[in-house]
Every structure is written in C-alpha cells, then in structure tokens.
Design a protein that fits this description.
Blueprint lengths: L1 H8 L3 H20 L2 H11 L8 H4 L3 H4 L3 H51 L2 H6 L2 H43 L1 H8 L2 H38 L1 H6 L3 H53 L5 H42 L21 E8 L9 E8 L4 E6 L5 H6 L9 E6 L2 E2 L5 H6 L1 E4 L8 E2 H6 L7 H10 L3 H6 L7 E2 L8 H15 L3 E5 L7 H15 L3 E5 L11 E6 L2 E6 L1 H7 L2 H12 L13
Parallel strand pairs: 3-10, 3-11, 6-9, 9-10
Antiparallel strand pairs: 1-2, 1-4, 4-5, 7-8, 11-12
Helix pairs in contact: 2-6, 2-8, 3-6, 3-13, 6-8, 8-9, 8-10, 8-13, 9-12, 10-12, 10-13, 12-13, 17-19, 19-20
The structure holds adenosine-5'-triphosphate (ATP) and magnesium ion.
C-alpha cells in the first residue's frame, strides 16, 4: 500500500514540495495569529510596558520602540500581514494539492483499468461487474477527495498543533503542561474511534458496491425482467440492499457523531484549569496578561485542530477503505502468466493439438474436461459436437488462453501455447461466436475492431466478402451508422455477418466458430453459412455446432462426452459406427426434416 502511494505521488513530487512549503507558511501564520493581541496588551496597554518581541519588531523597527499607539499600529500591521499570508498560502496549497489529487485519481483509474484488461476471465467469473464499476468510480473519487482536501487540512492542523505546543512551552513550560496534558488521551481516543469508524465504513462501501451491481444487473437484463414481468422481484431486491445501505450509513454516522461531544468535555476542563491557574499567576505577577491571552487563544485554536483531526479521521478512514478496494483490484493475480522466455510466435501454419488436457472452473469440483486428446492438421476443419454443457465452449476457450489448462498441453504447430507471448498468440486466432457483440461506434469501426488501422477500402472489402455490404449500404448512413451499446438495432443474422467481416479483416490462420448460426432462422442461416465458407477457406477451423448440417462436411468430427473425446472421424465413419453421433443425427433429422435442404460444402 505504502509503495503504491509512493509510485502514484512520484510524478508530482515537485508540486508536493511547493504544497508542503505553502502548508508550513500557513501553519506559521496560524501560530502567529494571537500574537498581535499579546503585543497590544503587554507592550501598549499595561504598565509597566514589556518590550515588543524581537521577531515582531522586524515588521517595522521604528514602530516597535515608539509610543503606545505606535506599538498598536505595529500589531495592526502584523494582523493584516498574517491574514494575507494565510490567504495566499491557503490558496496556493489548496489549488496545487487539487491538481495532485486529480492527477493521482487519473493515474489510479488508468492503472486499475489496465490491470483489469489483463486479468484472466476466471476473475470475472467470481466478481460482479457492478462492484468493479463502483470501485473504479466512487472509490477512486474518495481517494482523490482525500488526497486533495483532507491531506492539506490534516498536515496543516498537525503542524499548527506542533508549533503551538512549542511556543507554549517556550512561553511558560509548567503552565503549558496543564494545557497539553489532555493531548495524549485525545490522540489515543481518536485512534480507537477511527478503527471503529473504519469498520463501519468498510461495511457501507461494500453495500454500496452491491447496490451498483444490483442496479447494473437489473438494467442490463431489463428485457428479460419485463418479458417475465419480474419487476417486483428486482425492486424488492434493490429495496432490500438500499435499506441495508441506509442502516449501515446511519450506524457509521452514530459512531462518528459521538466524537465531537466526547472530545469537547476534556477540552473544557483544560481551558477551565488554564484560566483559573493563569489568573492566580497574573495576580502574583508571575505571568503577563498577554501571555494568558495567547494561551487561551491557543487553547481555542489548539483544540480546533484536534477536533478537526477527529473529523478528518472519518475522511481518512473512508479513503483507506477505498484504497483497499482499489488495491484489491490491482492485487488480483488472476493474470494469465507469461513465461519470461516467451517468444513472439511466427505466423502459424495452424496445427492444433490437445494432449491429455484437463480443466475445471471450480478446482474443487470434478473437472469439465477430464482428458481431451485430438489433433487438427493445418488448413483442415474440425467439427465439435456434444450435449449442451459437455464442455465444447470451454475446450476452445483454452486455445487463446482465456483460461489455462490444469494439466496436459495444448500445442500450436507443435509448440506449447504457453511458450508464446499472449498477445502474439491471440492476434493469430479469429472468433465468430454465437452472438456477436457490437461496441458503441460506427459499423465501420466495429468491423475494423478485428484490425485497428484498417483502411476504409479494406473494411468494405471484408464486408463484401462477409455479404454484409448489401444491408450496410441500405442503411441511411451506411458504414457510418452508429450502433448502440449492444447493437440492438441490428438483427441477429446481420450481427453475425458483422462478426464474420471482423474475422475476415483480421485474417487469422486459426479460426474458432462457436455455434455461429445457432441463433438464426433457416434463411439467415444460409446467408451466414455462405459467408462463413469464404471465411474458412485456407484456415484451420474449429467449429462447434449443434445443428449437424453445419459441420457435416468437416474433415473430422469429434464428439465430446463426459470430459473426453468419445468419438472421432468423418461424418460417414461416425455414421457407420452407429454410436452417439449417429444417434444425435437420427434425432435431429427426425425432428427437423427441413434442415435436409442444401447441405454445407466446406473447402479447405
Ligand atoms: N465461466 C464458468 N464458470 C464456471 N463454470 C462454467 C463456466 N462456463 C461454463 N461452465 C460450466 O462448464 C460446463 C461446460 O460448459 P460449456 O459452456 O463449455 O458447455 P458447452 O458444451 O459449450 O455447452 P453448450 O452446447 O450449451 O454451449 C458446464 O457444466 C457449465 O456449467
Ligand atoms: Mg457452448
């Protein structure tokens, strides 16, 4: 944590030095503030007159040794000077520290986001997006507020306390002891309360994070919620979390509200002692009236920072809770490890091999893949079938290393994929998934997603090959049409064509298709299959399909069952074998006679 703070603050160290200088000045002004009154009382109003302190005479030497009114004028000059100094130092300090705070928050957000991008998908299986969202926004803002506002106050307060304690001891050390006797107890007390506050705030922030998560989930699945008329359930869930958040916030407030009243009591006792004992000292001429004035002024000022500090304890607690939450993201180690000697892979020929691959999401459970073995020769197509939930999608997600296998190896061109650099590996693998997600942006941008920096010409060519050009040019804004968050304005088939254009422009030797036609009706399926055929030419293709027509002409078909490759061979071989595949085929073609129409031919 401390290291993180240092790293974050490092770029701003010169600004920070300036801020510290401003704070020192501000503190010095705070300590000097009651002195003009002392000078007036001791050197102008009372008899005998005491000499003006040496430092004060620097302001205007001739006034310091003049008559009573001249000394009063000197005091007035000091009042104004102190006020101007305080104002200037305060302005510079607060402005500069705000720039540091904003800069740190900016760096922190980018750093956290960068880290999130590198985390393995297994991290997201366990985390709620809403919680991450709330940390990246609310928690970072809390840290920024703390850095830019509270720090100045806290440091200046502490400096002022220190300065005043020193001055008091110099003036009259025995008397000063009475005034500061209570300080250690206050500090211990504040420290203890701070701990309690921190606990309650941790709770509050957690619930607030849950709330963002709940709202986010609810909004994201609004279609589903409305379709099933489950608005009441969502509302009840939110109401529950919202009430919890209210209760937790009130509890935190209760603890905090105790602070000020409890602190004010010992402060009053101290002040009472100082006034009582001080009067007796003055009557015995052991102390001047001016010194007592400075003491009482200090006491009032001196306990204000202490009270402030206890208030800051709260802000400090909030910030440290926020920092812990950010730290939890930055510290998440679900990063897919890259070997130190990893190499940038050469252009793949496209041979893929699975050797004894074992993988499970939940390491405590039975693995999803128990022992998977097969090989795909470069440029060939392998079809993957199996019951729903048998692990087909899981199996292919290991190739780009969204997850790492628990045991066994996956090779591309004979080399373990873990010895390649992650970026170089993923860059050579193309995907078309069951549902193509469109990013907010233009259609052109969405196609170019596969290869940043693609020219307009390349985009159009890819769209033409993917047979998407026709419907895109029919749109009023063509390639410049913007699509919403999740591309709701396009049909499922059109989105798939965009997905294919994306893969085409990326031009990868290895292509993974996970039920690319599953969500389409028979007519759009034909178009998409046509486009896919062009895409597949000359690449190594792994194609997962429920509808057997899609993969009937694959070079090899494998059937996944119980975590292993149960059957392997061409369509004819598997049919002849009369096993699970043949059974699947029989069921499908009884149920869906219409699918018998044009079968897919796959070149390559
Ligand atoms: N992210 C995940 N975290 C935990 N378990 C998962 C995750 N994804 C899938 N599973 C589990 O792993 C098993 C295999 O899922 P997978 O999605 O690979 O099946 P599939 O063969 O692709 O099914 P389908 O044909 O329905 O797409 C299932 O039991 C599923 O519940
Ligand atoms: Mg699947």
């Amino acid at each position: 944590m401390v290291r993180l703070v240092f790293q974050l603050v490092r770029p701003y160290r010169w600004l920070l030095v300036t801020v510290v200088a401003a704070m020192l000045l501000q503190a010095a002004m705070g300590v000097a503030a009651p002195w003009p009154l002392k000078i007036v009382i001791d050197s102008a109003l009372t008899t005998p007159r005491h000499p003006v302190p040496r430092w004060a005479s620097w302001f205007a030497p001739m006034l310091a040794h003049g008559d009573r009114m001249q000394v009063a004028a000197l005091a007035a000059i000091i009042v104004v000077t102190v006020a101007v100094g305080t104002a200037l130092a305060g302005y510079v300090g607060h402005y500069l520290i705000e720039s540091i705070g904003q800069g740190v928050a900016n760096d922190l957000r980018l750093r956290a986001y960068h880290h999130l991008q590198r985390l393995s998908l297994s991290y997201y299986d366990r985390q709620q997006v809403g919680t991450i969202l709330s940390t990246l926004t609310a928690d970072v803002t809390t840290i920024q507020n703390f850095a830019s506002q509270a720090t100045v106050n806290i440091v200046v307060d502490m400096l002022i306390i220190l300065g005043m304690v020193i001055v008091m001891f110099v003036l009259r050390w025995d008397f000063a002891l009475i005034a500061v006797a209570v300080l250690p107890f206050l500090i211990i007390f504040v420290a203890r309360v701070r701990k309690a506050i921190k606990k309650t705030i941790t709770e509050v922030r957690k619930i607030q994070g849950d709330m963002v998560a709940a709202v986010q989930e609810g909004l994201q699945s609004m279609e589903l919620v409305e379709a099933f008329e489950r608005e009441d359930i969502q509302e009840r869930q939110l109401a529950r979390i919202s009430r919890l958040s209210m209760e937790a916030a009130l509890k935190a407030r209760r603890v905090r509200a105790l602070l000020a009243p409890i602190i004010s009591l010992p402060i009053a006792v101290c002040t009472a002692l100082v006034i009582w004992h001080g009067t007796s000292l003055i009557l015995r001429h052991a102390m001047t009236l001016g010194t007592l004035t400075v003491f009482t002024a200090y006491l009032a000022r001196f306990f204000r920072p202490v009270q402030d500090l206890s208030g800051q304890a709260d802000i400090f607690a909030q910030a440290s809770v926020a920092a812990q939450r950010v730290q939890a993201i930055l510290g998440a180690e679900a990063i897919i490890p890259e070997r130190p000697d990893a190499v940038d892979p050469p252009p793949f020929r496209g041979e893929i091999g699975y050797q004894g691959v074992v993988f499970g999401y939940d390491k405590a459970d039975d693995p999803v893949l128990r022992n998977v073995n097969f090989t795909v020769t470069p440029g060939k197509m392998i079809g993957v079938v199996g019951e729903t939930g048998s692990g087909k999608s899981t199996m292919v997600s290991l190739i780009p290393r969204f997850y790492d296998a628990d045991a066994g190896t996956i090779t591309i061109d004979g080399t373990d994929i873990r010895s390649y650099k992650l970026h170089g590996l993923r860059r050579q693998i193309g995907f078309v998934l069951q549902d193509t997600v469109l990013f907010r942006g233009t259609l052109g941008d969405n196609i170019a997603l596969g290869r940043p920096g693609a020219t307009d010409d390349e985009i159009v060519r890819a769209a033409k090959a993917a047979m998407a050009d026709e419907f895109i040019t029919d749109l009023p804004h063509g390639y410049d049409t913007t699509v919403g968050d999740r591309g709701v304005t396009l049909s499922g088939g059109q989105r798939q064509l965009i997905g294919i254009a994306r893969a085409l422009i990326r031009d990868n030797p290895i292509l993974i298709l996970d039920e690319p036609t599953a969500s389409l009706d028979a007519e759009s399926e034909q178009v998409v299959i046509e486009a896919l055929k062009r895409l597949m030419t000359g690449r190594t293709v792994i194609c997962i399909a429920h509808r057997l027509t899609t993969i009937r002409d694959a070079d090899t078909i494998i059937l996944i069952k119980d975590g292993v490759v149960a059957e392997e061979g061409s369509h004819e071989e598997l049919m002849a074998r009369n096993g699970a595949y043949a059974e699947l085929h029989r069921i499908q073609f009884q149920d869906e006679p219409s699918v018998n129409s044009p079968s897919v031919e796959v070149d390559g």
